[in-house]
Amino acid sequence: MRIPLLLASLVALSGATRPPNKSCKAHPSNADWPSADDWARLNKALDGRLIKPTPPAAACHPGQPGHDPKRCAEVKKAWETTEFHCGNPVSVLLDQFTNYTCLPDAAYPCTGDGYPAYVINATTARHIKLGVDFARQKNVRLVVKGTGHDYLGRSVAPGALSIWTHNLKDITYHPGKFRLSGSKKEIRGNAITLGAGVQMYEAYAAADKHKQAVVGGHGTTVGIVGYITGAGHSPLGPRYGMAADNVLEMVVVTPGGKIVAVNEDQNRDLFWAMRGGGGSTFGVVVSVTLRTHPTPQVTGAGFIAFTDPKHHTIKDELLAYLSSQVPVLMDKGLSGYVFLSAGMSLPDGTTVPGVPPTFAGAFGTVLVQDAADREAAIMRAFKPLNDTIQERWPGKVNLIVLPKHYNTFWEWHKENHDAGRGGGSTYVASRMLAGDELKGNNTKFMSALKEVFKANERFDIFMVGGKGVANARPRGGSDAVNPAWRKAAVMGMSRVFFPPFNKTAEKDAIKLMNDAFEPMRQLDRRSGSYMNEAFVFEKNWQQSFWGDNYPRLLKIKRAVDPANVLWCQTCVGSEGWAQKQDGQLCRVDGRD
C-alpha cells in the first residue's frame, strides 16, 4: 500500500527539530529537511508520481498502514522471491541493507526508518531530471532503484529520495543499423534500445522476436542497467564479450540535471565510465542501446558428478579433478555455471533419481552454441570426464549428464535461468580466475577451496570469460570493465549467511567471509572481483573492482558530480563520505 502524498505530508517528516549539519546530507530528523510544501511542489511537477512509501511488510504489523492478515500471508510467501522485491518501490533483495526495519513477521518491530523517505515513480527522462535537480538543490541524499537485485546495498538508503526506474519499459528494435544520437554516424548491425526498467527476461524475449539475442545474465529478474553498468558477465560472454562491451549508446541524466546522449561521439568520458564503472555514480540511466546477435541454437545440459562425502580421500580427489576440467570444457566451447561442494544436501522435498540426499562433487548447467550434432556434442565433451571417473573411482563416483536441445537462447534461458531467492541475510565474495589456477596440479586452488568451504558448503564457478571477453572491441576503443576480466576464464563466488537482528552473528559472518576467501585472492593478487557480486567489505575495493581504471574513473566522477549528488557504498568516489548509525550520510572529514 502507498499513502497519497498530500496525506503523508501532514505527518511526521515535517516535524524535525534537530539543527542541520552542513557536513551531512539533509535528513528527515534535521531542520534542513525539505518542507511539506517543497515535497508537494515536487509532486505537482511530477504529475503526482511522488510516493511516500509504506514499509514493504507493513501488512504484517498491527498499527501500520495497510495492516491486513490476509495480505500478510501473501507477503510472507512472496518475500522469498526476487519478483516481490523487484516490483516494490523500496524493497531490496537482502534484508540487512534496510537494517531489518520491517520484516514480514509481527514478532519483530516495523518502521520505515531503513527505507527512502520518498520515491519518484519515474516513467520519463523528465521525471528523473526533476528528482536529480531536487536532490541537488535541497542537498537530499539520492538513490536509484531499478530492481533492488543487489548484493552491496546500493539501491536503498534511509531517509533518502529514491528514483524508481522500474517502469521505464520501452523497447525499440533497430534492424540493420543504428544511428548515434547527435551524430551522422551509423553503426551497421542490429541493435535494441531498452528502457532503464527492462529486466533480463524482457530483453531476451524482445530480441528473440527478431531471432536475435543480447548478451545478458543468468538471473531472469535482474535489471539491465545495474547489470550493464557493473560490466555484466554472461554465458554468451565467451563468444561476444561482457554486456558492457556491447553497448552502443546510453541516454543519461547527469548529476547536474542534463539529459544527454552518451556514446563514442558525445560525452565520451561518460560513455567510457558508465560501461563497467558502476551504477548510481556518474548519472541516472534512462535507456541503453545494445548490439544484438543472431540467436544461437543452444544445446544445454544439467549434470552432476557425485560421491558420498564420507569418502574423504575420494571427495578431495574428485573435487580437484572436476575443477581442473572446467577450463577443459570451456576449450571445447562450453559455457555456463558449475557448483562445487564438499558436502551439500538436496533442497527439502527434492529428489533426483540416483542422487543421494547428501553428496560431494559438482553439479551445474552448461551450454554449447550452434553445435551441428547437438546432444552428441555435449556427451562428447563429457566423455573424457566419465572415462576418468570410471577408471579412477569405479563404483564410488557417478556422473549424470542430461542434454537437451533448444532452438534459441531465449528458450534455453526460460528453462535454465537462476530463479534466485529474495529475503534473508547474505554477503558474497568473488574472484576472477585465469583458468591456469584450475588446470593440472591445482594444489593451491584446492587449498583455497577448502578454506572457502568453511564459509559455505558450495563454491560457484561461472564459465563466462575466455576469448570473447579477452578480445572484445567495445565502441570507442575501450570501456571501464575491470581489466582482470580480460585475463579471466571463470569467476568464482562464495557466500555466507547469518540470522537477522544478531549483530554478533553478522560481525562473525563478515570476518569468516573475509578470512575464508583470502586464499582465493592470493591465487593471483593482480586479479580482482566482479563488482556486482562482490564482498561489500572488500579491502582495497578500488583496485579489486576496477584495477588500473580506478584513477580515471575517480577523475570523471569528480568532474561530472562535484556536489556528490550520487553516492553509494564502494562506488567510485565514495571514500569521502560515510553513513552514520542513525542513517545520515556525512563527509568523513566533517567539512561543509
Automatic annotation (TrEMBL):
Write out the entry's keywords from A to Z. Oxidoreductase, Signal
Q: Is Ligase tagged as a keyword? A: no
Gene Ontology molecular functions: FAD binding; oxidoreductase activity
**CDD domains the record matches:** RRM_SF
Residues in FAD-binding PCMH-type domain copies: 112-295
Question: Where does the secretion signal sit in this chain?
Answer: 1-16
**What name goes with this protein?**
FAD-binding, type 2
Write down the species: Purpureocillium lilacinum
